[in-house]
Amino acid sequence: MKMTETSIAAVRVPEPSLVHEMRAALVVWEREMIRFSRDRTRVVAGMVQPLLFLFVLGSGLGSLVAASAGGVDFRTFLFPGVLSMSVLFTAAFSGISMVWDREFGFLREMLVAPVSTTSILIGKCLGGATVATIQSIVVLALAGLVGVPYDPLMMLEVLLLLFLMSFMITALGLLLSSRVKQVQAAMPLVQLVITPLMFLSGALFPLSNLPPWLAVVTHLNPMTYAVEPVRHVIFERLDMAPAARALLDPGIWWGSFAVPVPLQVLLVIGASGVLLSIAVRLFSRTE
Fold it and tell me: What does the alpha-carbon distance between residue 60 and residue 21 come to, in Å, rounded to a whole number?
């Protein structure tokens, strides 16, 4: 019997390097951008929902709390909170979309690639944060309608803070998706976790004069340290009485210690690192 030669295509596996890992994260980020640009329904829904919160909810509640808002339009107070909410849900769903990737087999294809799980999840977080920040630009463009000035430096600072907040929430979404196996269970879980984070962050109400138990809960919520810097940056550009500023933007206090904004930002960065690290470990074990 005559033996035949079979040619096997040569496969070159690149050597592990930082550049290789960064390229892998960039590919995952680019995929998130393509998915976002092709999903017009998601784009429109993500932009309309914050507008409903700002102009419908803000106008409705404003008529009730006008006397207690220190003479400030309630929509002005609500503006930083709506910005935060606009990125909160988008970032959370970007993270939880890993459940879809698992069900359709794409997650397994990514994990068998010669790149680290950390690079894949970092790319996912960067993609979710970019998409959420882009959507928040629509809300930020309406700042003038609620009495917030168009200060370029303020807008740049707000966008950077929103990007950081989105990165943290996307990492949380990835952490949740590591424990969820079916799409049907993903949505209720996101609402169960994300909605309390939103309501207990001070996005919809001032942190001053809270009941002691509620103050403790808000201080334990990482979203509080993400929302407050956004409000601080915006309220610094507003012309309001000191009493109204103290009422609507009292800052975060640990007892008699006023937590400075840079420390709040560092806490958000630390929370992002912790959530991402746990997500990487869980995906490495379960997949």
Answer: 49
Contact 280, 121 (CB under 8 A): yes
DSSP string covering 213-243: HHHHHHHH-TTHHHHHHHHHHHHTTS---HH
Give the residue from 261, 275, 190 showing the smallest Cα distance to 225. Answer: 261
Mean pLDDT for 258-286 is 92
Closest among 133, 128, 134 to 275, alpha carbons compared: 128
Report the run of H or E that residue 253 belongs to, with start and end: strand 253-254
Sequence-distant (≥ 6) Cβ neighbours of residue 16 within 8 angstroms? 114
State pTM to two decimals. Answer: 0.88
Q: How many Cα atoms occupy the beta-carbon half-sphere of 256 within 13 Å?
A: 0
With a CB cutoff of 8 Å and minimum separation 6, the contacts of 24 are 113, 115, 116, 119, 120, 123
The answer, yes or no, to whether residue 41 has pLDDT greater than 90, is no
* Six-digit token string for 45: 């829904």
Residue 54 tokens read as 């700002």
Distances (CA, A) of 39 to 9, 45, 135: 37, 10, 13
